[in-house]
From TrEMBL, chain A:
Lineage: Eukaryota, Fungi, Fungi incertae sedis, Mucoromycota, Mucoromycotina
Annotated SAC3/GANP/THP3 conserved domain residues: 48-353
InterPro entries: SAC3/GANP/THP3, SAC3/GANP/THP3_conserved
BP-aspect Gene Ontology terms: mRNA export from nucleus
Protein name in UniProt: SAC3/GANP/THP3 conserved domain-containing protein
GO cellular component: cytoplasm; transcription export complex 2
Automatic annotation (TrEMBL), chain B:
A GO CC term attached to the entry: transcription export complex 2
Gene Ontology biological-process annotations: poly(A)+ mRNA export from nucleus; post-transcriptional tethering of RNA polymerase II gene DNA at nuclear periphery; transcription elongation by RNA polymerase II
UniProt protein name: PCI domain-containing protein
Organism of derivation: Hesseltinella vesiculosa
Positions of the PCI domain: 209-408
Highest taxon in the source lineage: Eukaryota
Length: 510, 446
């Protein structure tokens, strides 16, 4: 790629622009027109990245490492169009700059099916995040809101949710929860609009809508307008188990002990009468096998707030010396480790003594129970309640819509070892698998099936655990093959779906 | 036949000059059975070319007011199309008429035309909703959207008129609540409820005083405002508005009062106030509310959920289904525990202030008709005590709840929400105190 070729291409583009205006493919900036007469802009780029951008970024050192070959040069098979902010001064993009819907989906297939499995989430996340943002932008530029746009946005949303779980434990510089949530919300808002429009104009109900309405509810927990929107859905969507489950979570997470908003403490939702604040049920329900993995990932982000609301309520109700043990609180509030709880307790000004939480300490002067409201809630961390729900499913399958389900494998989720326990087993050859918190045992008790207690019967050797994981992976793969056969048998029209990532339909099993 | 048109236009001109708005409303009636309109229709039946009347109108009225001439022509266009019996065409013609009315209204003398504008607004809204329903229009094609656009224009014109009303000198603002109420009706039907906020804010900042308007308009406005608050979970504000609407609504309007009750009852229910049986009977709301209230009083969660399910369509249509599903349980649990306490007191023949969490759990399990974990039961009780539904504290070690000796279960309608303004100074004070205590202990050790 040399500079002369680049300059020549730039000249060609000016000519291309002139022709496009002439042929009515793009708007003439000098000729104002009305909204009704606006041109339906359509992209013609057939590659994941327009040629011109490939050349430009190669020359200007704008390549991402994931787009390079071994010599550090551009690999055309790996180049993907980058997101560029649409500033007011920029010119209208050329048709050759913008990808068609089919190509956009192929690009997404590449990002999810090839890039994601090849690196750790931490390494490829910034790249995928940026490139999927560009995919969304191309859909917006062409004002395409059909089922292709919906499918792309669904998979991108799942990616963001997955990223939140995988990366929330990282520092602010390496991963910003707030920015990720912002992007996710944008995708969800678009999706909700697409669903509404498609139903209003064409009376079509998309099959995955309940899944994403559920995510939307959880994402906007304290926003009454989301509930109102949900209640204008047709009953068939509203009554879907996933939406019902999300609404249940919404109900038990409502609390009315929030402080009033001040200039230093913003974003405090207002308190509403008769709120459940049913924290024990919350963590049990997260652990419940019928709560799908991605839904649990979204709920994970709310753990700090639920815990704070719970501790604040407990602070009014228990008394010093007669209150619960530290272990009890850790169990009930789904903490993974004592350290996690201790740091929260310090943050909220709760006194720990004699293995107990000494709630209801009075202020020296006002005699009001003392509870510190930090300037912002503590950050969520990946939780052991959520991680096992993955059930060994590949990340790319999760993004493409395979919901990890217990019925998939003959192994119950509780007997699958957590990552922490695998590491500890590997570290010391004959240690016992650390027991899963007993609330999930209790949850099963609630369902009426007695489960054996952990302490003695759950010893499995590292080799056995590995074997179980391999078995599970095999089952998933077999199922994938079976699905692909079914799809092919149905004469599935979209040839772009290759064996690698041919599974699209999300399925709610359970 | 040209005579009819000439006569008509002359009458219009006279009425306009005399500022006789009642006559204008009559002349431009939209009531298809009104004798004047019937006469016009008959005359128009034999007309195939609109220039027949548009010329006459121009001749007579162009000197008076161009916008009046336009409006009159559009009105005749509307009357002309009535014979086709095509609802959609009628609406389109009505839309054009209304659009022509707007410039007339916009002039500085437009304030006298308020009755004409409001009657046209009511008609266009009614027709829009009728057509949307009859033709099952969806999305952007709904005529309600057109109506909203027109009403917004009128609203802004009315709002902008800041002259004070005096006898003989009306102000455009006289019609503002009429228009607002019509617009709210459309917003609720279209599902774009958040658009109400702009109008609510504008009315407030514009200094428009609700109490100065006819009580009928006040009732309607408070009804929609109450529903708006309810959708945003602002229960006390919703109650205030809906209560006003209900009590001030004239007793002749039984259906309207019943509609208001469909929202007022759930609101008050969540605030702990139960309606009387007589009220429910009077307004034919025993199903589903009587059953619902019985379940709350008896603290029966399972039954309550069943009632909500059985009458799903009713609650879903009012958008109160989720609200009740999410918040009634708290009241139900409170009632279940109270009954347990009363039952115990009865058995033991003395007031009980201390009782076992196991018994509470049993009471809750019975209410839910499903087993419950110890921790879940305890968490529910913690939540109830923290909110003030039960006065007392929990002795976790002994697994008992110790209730206050008097009024352990306050009346549900006496509850009030926490409004805590965080006090950073108090936080600092306490932390300093604790540090000094720790320092004191250290020095003591030494």
């Amino acid at each position: 790629m040399d500079t002369m070729a680049y300059e020549a291409m730039k000249k060609d583009r000016i000519e291309e622009r002139r022709e496009a205006i002439e042929q009515g493919l793009i708007q003439d900036p000098l000729a104002p027109t009305t909204l009704e007469d606006a041109i339906d802009f359509r992209g013609t780029c057939e590659a994941m990245c327009p040629r011109f951008e490939m050349v430009e970024r190669s020359l200007q050192n704008g390549l991402d490492p994931l787009e390079m070959n071994e010599n550090g040069e551009l690999d055309p098979e790996k180049a993907v169009k980058r997101y560029r902010r649409s500033a007011a001064g920029n010119e209208q993009p050329l048709p050759s700059d913008v990808r068609s819907p089919l190509v956009l989906l192929q690009t997404l297939d590449y990002l999810v099916g090839t890039v994601l499995p090849s690196y750790t989430v931490e390494k490829c996340h910034p790249f995928i995040r940026d490139r999927t943002r560009s995919i969304r932008q191309d859909f917006t530029l062409q004002n395409i809101r059909d089922r292709y746009a919906i499918e792309a946005h669904e998979r991108i949303a799942r990616f963001h949710i997955l990223a939140l779980h995988e990366l929330c434990g990282l520092d602010e510089e390496r991963f910003s929860i707030q920015q990720e949530t912002e992007q996710l919300n944008k995708v969800l808002i678009s999706l909700m609009e697409f669903y509404d429009d498609l139903r209003e104009e064409h009376r079509i109900d998309m099959p995955n809508e309940p899944e994403f309405r559920a995510y939307n509810i959880i994402s906007h927990l304290r926003d009454p307008d989301t509930i109102r929107q949900t209640q204008s859905l047709p009953p068939s969507v509203f009554r879907h188990p996933l939406v019902t489950r999300a609404l249940k979570f919404s109900a038990i997470m409502q609390r009315n002990n929030e402080i009033m908003e001040t200039s230093s403490r913003r974003n405090k939702p207002h308190n509403v009468e008769a709120s459940q604040n049913s924290y024990a049920q919350f963590f049990n329900l997260v652990a419940d096998p019928d709560t799908p993995f991605l839904m649990a990932c979204m709920l994970e982000a709310h753990f700090p707030d639920v815990r704070k609301g719970a501790l604040k309520a407990m602070n009014l109700v228990y008394r010093p010396n007669t209150g619960p043990d530290i272990d009890y609180v850790i169990r009930v509030l789904g903490y993974d480790s004592e350290d996690d709880f201790t740091s929260d307790a310090a943050l909220y000004g709760l006194k720990l003594e004699n293995g107990q939480v000494q709630f209801n300490q009075r202020h020296v002067r006002t005699k009001v129970p003392f509870f510190i409201e930090p300037l912002s809630n503590p950050k969520p961390k990946p939780s052991q309640l959520v991680e096992p729900k993955k059930l060994g499913t590949r990340l790319e399958d999760i993004v493409n819509g395979i919901m990890p389900s217990p019925s998939l494998a003959s192994i119950s989720p509780r007997s699958l070892p957590s990552r922490a326990s695998i590491r500890s087993v590997a570290a010391s050859a004959s240690s016992i698998v650390s027991p899963m918190p007993s609330y999930s045992a209790a949850a099963n008790d609630m369902m009426g099936t007695a489960m054996p207690s952990h302490d003695d019967t759950d010893y499995t050797s590292f080799a056995e655990q590995e074997e179980k994981r391999a078995q599970l992976a095999q089952v998933v793969e077999q199922r994938a093959q079976l699905e692909m056969q079914i799809h092919q048998g149905l004469g599935y029209p979209d040839a772009r779906f290759t064996h690698q990532h041919g599974l699209r339909r999300s399925r709610y099993l359970g | 036949m040209a005579q009819v048109f000439r006569g008509f236009t002359r009458e219009v001109s006279n009425a306009y000059d005399m500022q006789d708005v009642e006559r204008l409303v009559e002349l431009f009636t939209l009531d298809q059975h009104h004798h004047e309109l019937v006469l016009l229709q008959q005359a128009l039946n034999s007309v195939h070319d609109t220039t027949v009347y548009s010329q006459i109108v121009s001749q007579t009225l162009d000197n008076v007011s161009i916008s009046l001439a336009n409006f009159t022509t559009r009105y005749l266009d509307y009357a002309h199309c009535l014979r086709e019996q095509n609802k959609e065409k009628e609406f389109d013609m009505l839309e054009l008429s209304f659009s022509a009315l707007i410039p007339m209204f916009n002039s500085s003398e437009g304030a006298t035309l308020v009755p004409l504008v409001t009657s046209y607004a009511s008609a266009i809204v009614a027709m829009a909703l009728q057509i949307d329903k009859a033709l099952d229009l969806r999305g952007k094609q709904r005529k309600a959207n057109t109506a909203v656009r027109l009403l917004s224009k009128v609203f802004n014109m009315m709002l902008a008129d800041r002259t004070t009303a005096e006898p003989g000198h009306p102000t455009k603002r006289l019609g503002i609540y009429h228009i607002t109420n019509l617009t709210f009706k459309l917003y609720f039907k279209l599902g774009t409820v958040r658009m109400c906020q702009t109008m609510i804010s504008n009315l407030r900042t514009g200094g428009v005083i609700l109490e100065e308007y006819p009580i009928g308009q006040q009732v309607t406005y408070q009804y929609y405002l109450g529903r708006y608050h309810l959708l945003h979970n602002r229960l006390p504000a919703a109650e205030k508005c809906l209560f006003f609407a209900f009590t001030k609504c004239h007793y002749d309007y039984w259906t309207n009062k019943r509609t208001i009750l469909k929202y007022l009852i759930p609101t008050r229910l969540l605030l702990g106030r139960l309606p009387s049986k007589e009220l429910l009977e009077k307004y034919a709301l025993e199903t589903p509310f009587a059953q619902l209230i019985a379940t709350v009083k008896s603290g029966n969660y399972a039954h309550c959920m069943r009632v909500l399910e059985d009458h799903f369509a009713f609650f879903y249509q009012c958008s109160t289904y989720v609200l009740l599903c999410q918040r009634l349980p708290v009241l139900i649990w409170r009632c279940a525990l109270k009954r347990a306490r009363d039952h115990l007191s009865c058995i033991e023949n003395r007031p009980i202030h201390l009782y076992d969490l196991k018994i509470c759990k049993k009471a809750l399990e019975q209410s839910m008709a499903a087993p419950m974990e110890d921790e879940e039961a305890e968490a529910i009780i913690v939540s109830l005590v923290a909110q003030g539904y039960i006065k007392g504290y929990i002795h976790h070690r002994r697994q008992v709840i110790v209730c206050s000796k008097n009024n352990a279960f306050p009346q549900m309608d006496e509850m009030s929400l926490l409004t805590e303004v965080y006090n950073e100074d108090a936080e600092r004070e306490q932390l300093e105190y604790l540090q000094s205590q720790a320092g004191h202990l250290m020095t003591m050790d030494v």
